[in-house]
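Input (Gliding motility-associated protein GldM N-terminal domain-containing protein):
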Amino acid sequence: MKNTYKVLFSFSVLVFVTSCSSYKSTNNELDALLVATQQTMNQLAEKIATTEKDSLTTAFIKLEEKSKELFPALVQCNAKYKLTKAYMTTLEEAQKVLVRLDDNFASMEDRAFVLNAIYLDYDSKLKSINSSATSDANTRIKVTVDSNEDDGFFVFGKLSYEQDLAIKRFRFNRPTQNASLEVVPGYYLFWLEKEGRVGTPELHLIMSDGSGEPQKLVLKTPK
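Output:
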């Protein structure tokens, strides 16, 4: 069964390499980023093909297939509306994480998590594009946050695949229970802080369903 699985993965890698080589850049920022991302994934594919970890192979194949769906949609959206800086930043950070994974492939312990996190980020972006009446990727989603106990906590966040980085990518404008922020679709980590109390980051998918309604989260209060 494992041999069959590896043959199928090797075939998938071959198809992926072919699709990468046929990608034509039109010399703009998005195209350059997507080509760089595909090249990094190509390098990762070769390394993953030599491992015996089925979970890693599965995570990579899912990400590969999702990128083949999302990237053409992003190119079309960018031609019509031009992707915002905030949106581009999330794609750039995903590329940086993939490069870090490729550079440190042997030593990184959360490889499957990183691949799956980027897959879910891409998936939320694609679903949000498909739910837009105009197929616009630039939909910003209002996220409101309450704490499950007490109030007055500041809300911080970062991208899911940045879980091992000690950063605060953004902070909500007000503390709970009135915290809100507009973000682009994606897979995020959010947590609460107040007076030295720091909550455990929680993973949340943020995506548009076309209704324009805010997405409400309730985070656990740090002890």
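The two ends are 47 Å apart (CA to CA).
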